[in-house]
Protein 1
Amino acid sequence: MGDMSDLKEREDKLQGMGTSMLRKEDAKFIRGQGNYVDDIKMPGMLFGALVRSPYAHARIKGIDKSKALAAPGVVAVLTADDLKPVNLHWMPTVGGDVQAVLADQKVHFQMQEVAMVIATDRYAAADGAALVEVDYEELPAIVDPKKALLPDAPVLREDIADKNDLTHGPRTHPNHIFTWEAGNKDATDNAFKNAEIVVREEILNPRVHPCPLETCGCVSSFDKASGNLTVYVSTQIPHLFRTVLAMLSGIAESKIRVVGGDIGGGFGNKVPIYPGYVVATVASIVTGVPIKWIESRMENIATSSFARDYHGVGELAADKNGVIKALRFSALADHGAFNSHVSATKFPAGLFSICTGSYAIPSAYCRVDAVFTNKAPGGVAYRCSLRVTEAIYLIERMIDVLAQKLNIDKAEIRRRNFVKADQFPFTTPFGWTLDSGDYHTALDKVLKAVDYDGLRKEQAAKRADLNCPTLMGIGLSTFTEIVGAGPTAVCDILGIGLFDSCEIRVHPTGGVIARLGTMTQGQGHATTYSQIIATELGLPASDIVVEEGDTDKSPYGAGTWGSRSTPVSGAATAQAARKIKAKAKQIAAHLLEVAEGDLEWEIDRFKVKGNVSQFKTMKEICMVSHTGNLPAGMEQGLNAVAYYDPPNLTYPFGAYLCVVDIDKHTGETTVRRFYALDDCGTRINPMVIEGQIHGGLTEAFAVAMGQQVPFDENGNHLGNTLMDYFLPTAVETPHWETDHTVTPCPHHPLGAKGVAESPHVGGIPCFSNAVVDAFAHLGVTHMDMPHNAYRVWQQCNQLGVNQR
Amino acid sequence: MNVTLEKSFPLPGSAETAWQLLCDIEAVAGCMPGARITERIDEQRFKGLVSVKFGPASLSFRGEIELKSIDATSRTLVLSGKGTDSTGSSGASMDLTARIEAVDGYNCTLIGNSTISVSGKAATFGGRMMGSVADQVLKQFADHFGARVEQMQGSQVAFTDQPGSEGAGPIAARTTPPTAVHRVLPKATAVVQQPAELNALSLLWGMIRDGFKSLFGTYRR
């Protein structure tokens, strides 16, 4: 047993799990030396620009390419008719629908892709696109999803009008996509009939967009000689991307290489396969030269995957003490013009049925009706790809509505309904098994930290003083997230299970290369995965290289979305490392001439129990593993691959509290305080976790306080520039106070859960609850987002609180 | 983005004079700066082009307009128009009914009733201003129209001669904001130079053109 300082020194040298190691990625990024898809320049590369529709719904009567083709630098102009021969003018979506790659006879949303102009440079391509003359016959558009299923509503999708099933059950109307339900309807309806108290509220999750710093784009390069296709693309799912390309193009998957490179933020916006990618790839196959296509900011906000657009109705049944007896939630989902919502095959409405949240509710039923409208398709995006945000927003708003109805404190009503610590693992009425949690402890820690009682007293005083220029609101959110998709038994995309993978190669001098099926977009994977391996193998994280995103290098995986990297790939990493460690132990035993049972692990070495001087460090073992001095029959090398199929999803949770002061006369809302306690189980890199939480809270602030993708009655997009679309900077963003508890995940090898989505999912209702709470004493039970100054002022004005 | 406007403007002249003017396509043309006829399809239908220049960007609008009816008894003119800018990024359409109502022997009222709809970038960037824009354009038209009527009535009108004002010089070169040309009368020479078909057409295109100028003027701030 070495002395403590020696142990600590060796431990510090590893920078393993639990240390706030600085991010390996940042040295490159802060020097502006990242390599994004638009940085890629290839010899002979041509550029694509898309011709897009000014109308939300119109028939294409003709397309005249002649002027464009005559323009300098223009090489080709591709339309749906040019893609027909290769049958790529339409493509299947993972939602069980088809999507037009280039508009075929009709356009279904404003700025839909109509043609692509290929030219020698970006400017020539843009000029050429402006010269393509498209003759449109404008048709009446459906913008409000509530009007989509009216008997006299215009039929949007003539191409599938005769299909009475889009793989998710019978359709009741040409504009109907699916109706999905879960839970026990009869038991729930009965509980409502017999309930002492029932509350109901219509709650909108408006259409928003994640708006990553880097827009979407690709460089497709087809080598006619070898028949190999290489696609550099800003994607969160390189392996699935390659599989889909193989399915679409008929090119052998082995001859396709997809490279992710550096990605400037994804948030779900970079999960789908966009028409631009397909057309650029076809163009490269046809021309035999690389084609680059990069979205403009307007194209990104207006056409690539939006988020939310869930028009919800929440109902709770409870007794007089506020104990919830039943939950009934429904949502009208606006999926836009094509059902390209990315989700696990069996979950057309994602994980919406997590909507019982952190509460023990005996009976529950939920239903989602998805419809077509003349808006851009998508719905996968925004730091929670699987409708968890919508579900948690509903329950966290509704429990406040119930509290107000019964005049019970909003913290107390949560305590009365929480799943108790000794009830885990807890199975919800929808069948999810919450793995672990301690909700009471988390909430109480937050209330104590902010002096909740003191805040309520201050609020009461301000409410009593009619001359007080501000309204004070206190918002709570005690959410449970569901991340880490997922068990292959229930989770698949295109039939491919949502397992993930890690391959580790250890070299003679102890340098390690780890390759994974995930794809970092700023989450700091290279740092976090290194720290896992450092602790598992006792080799310094600084000498561990992590590679992701190149399908030629890394083993197959479902990519990074839904906070699945640590829950799934992190587990695969630990398991691959443990295979290597097991072999290392055999080698150590061989070298020390003892039985494996006589060895114990200490930070970076195997030592003989009770004999300080007898040990072999991992570094020594790494070298020996590449020699002939090995146990009989053992192969050289210290390599391993692990594929991890999670037995369950992980359920991180948190308790958030927000204090706002609203100016009665301007409606301006100031976030005085935001205290966020997160529990994501074992914490691998506290600094990286904190960074993820800061980002998620900032995006929650953006959604709750200002973001909105508005349309006029004709389906014109009214906010697709950063003049209109709210993107918070350091100027607007409040100060975040973070805290944590640690309740390890029982089924994860490291006890870790996902975290990046939690602050977004939990943060949004916290802001809304704070704003509504400011008006609660005036009888207000709900206000839809975004809570910008104008909308909040309207509420003040309507209530007359701004009278001087 | 749809905008419906019903506007009436008092005119210093008799209904008869005003109606004469409304039917006198040549003269009315002068009341609306803008547009060029590229093709007359038949008695009622024309094709036209209008170029707009705002800052570094210039937009060329192609469109078709139809004179639905000219009814002398009710002194009513009805037309509709539809256009797309040549980059294909915006569309616009309008239905207009213009009517002359007598007040007394020396005064009458021009009643304009129009529905304007824009789509694409025009709506994205400026849809929210369409109301005021169209409003302002109609007013501008009425001012010019009124001055013409007054002139026909033989009363004295002080002409403001403004170099580069409407009619004079290429439209594409005009950078004066709409408000500046407000109440400024076109050169008499400009009026007679206008092709006969321009009256209805220029009313539509004038709206769209000035509309765009204000929209993008604001956008670039």
Protein 2
Amino acid sequence: MSVFDLRLAELHNRLQNKQLSVAELVEHSIKRISDTDDKIGAFLALNEEGARKEAQALDAQLAAGGERGLLFGVPAGIKDNIVTEGLRTTCGSKFLENHDPIYDAAVVTKLRAAQSVTIGKLNMDEFAMGGSNENSAYGLVRNPWDLERVPGGSSGGSAAAVAAGQVYFTLGSDTGGSIRQPAAYCGVVGLKPTYGLVSRFGLVAFASSLDQIGPITKNVEDSAYVLQAIAGHDERDTTSAKVDIPDYLSALTGDVKGLRIGVPKEYLGQGIDPQVKERVLEALKVFESMGAVWEEVSLPHTEYAIATYYLLASSEASSNLARFDGVRYGVRADNPANLIDLYRRSRSEGFGPEVKRRIMLGTYALSSGYYDAYYKKAQQVRTLIKQDFDQAFEKYDLIIGPTAPTPAFKLGEQVGDPLTMYLNDICTIPVSLAGVPAISIPCGTADGLPVGLQIIGKPFDERTVLRAAHAFESQTGFHDLRPALS
Amino acid sequence: MSITIKEVEHVANLARLELSDAEKEQFAGQLNAILKYAEKLNQLDTEGIEPTSHVLPLANVMREDVVKPSWPIEKVLLNAPEEEDGQFKVPAVLE
């Protein structure tokens, strides 16, 4: 067993009792990365020297006694679309291959205050566009459970790094499922908080009305710890919600008696792998045995969610990515004939195919004559999708279903077919459009590959989501399964 | 509705992208497939439904108009592909 398999509370006990030092934790992380990352490909940049220095300072603080931060001493990895001052941040894009941010994202400042140690930056689909991590300009990430399979995406590096025991926890970002789906494929815990709970300041924008940062961890308790550290209002993000941040840890009571669960029939219908469906039904039996009640519910607009999402997210992306013009940062084409030529060639040379495809789709949907037919129509359908959830939550405390319709697919299997790739997100996208919180937790395996259970809650009710997820993992222990990665 | 190569060229121009002939062909095909799929939204009657641009009940968020410190120039220019005299340099805009 690795020290990274210990719960945070136990890890802190050992640090307190001098059985372990922060320096040892950091060295463990660096060694594990050096032993495994040629196979996995999770890291794009390492902060070895900085991490060692921080470890020294934290060990000195520990020796002197005094207050410890919430995430004291634990090695963390950060998705590469979250800016880190002085630590290269590429968003998985060639466009930003030499980009050294001049400030820290709000969540990075918060992690620093909580005293975790940043080990490095994690691979991802370019600008977070993709569900397999195959769209990174810096190579594949392999799933630690089966090196021939994808880790999911777009936070593929963030999920694989936790599954491979390279760092203690990571941050990912989720626009249409990009935390939850890779967490499911890699057998780890991934939480997408309510839209607006965590500041997006310093998160390179993909689709601003959907993007949200969240933790990827090995268990639900640690997820609650990290959420506690990163949640909260930030005036630098105007969409940051002004809500009181509750105590998430105290929600983990193990008690789900009387909890009312709705199970969307649309999430268990056509296209779902029979073994995934089986695991979800078994999970519902576990909740039943703990005193929760569940019944089938309909979210009737589910089948429209993917089309809605790709129109809205691509439209927002086409606007957000206009900032990459080769003037203030990023690559610039050689010998531009004029300013327009500079924009055109810099962007064409710097962006990969999926990013260009979505910029094209979004630009088309927003262009004169098509705006009402595509963009506005999709915004109206988004209202209907959100109403599905509002209505369900009048009757239920939680909605539960699979995170993804299948386990991890093979590398290369869906590369040539963007539409099929998009359909993997059928269970996560409606949740993103509604802006509500959801967690993916391990609920067993299918042919040796992890299956994720998705627990969806009311807006800003992360406490109930975490309570149910924690009760389930305490009862089943599926989160303790590890890949046989040497 | 089907996107022609000409329309692909128009949209690429709006998006400030330069596409090869092969890319134009490929995007025309893929965008047609995606937009055909998106036509299923037309099955829904959305007459009178308010569009959702955002899930939070937020209107404009204002702050006090006070002067705050900004980044030093050398930091701002740290990632500039080309700079001169403390400014971003671009090709001449006016001939």
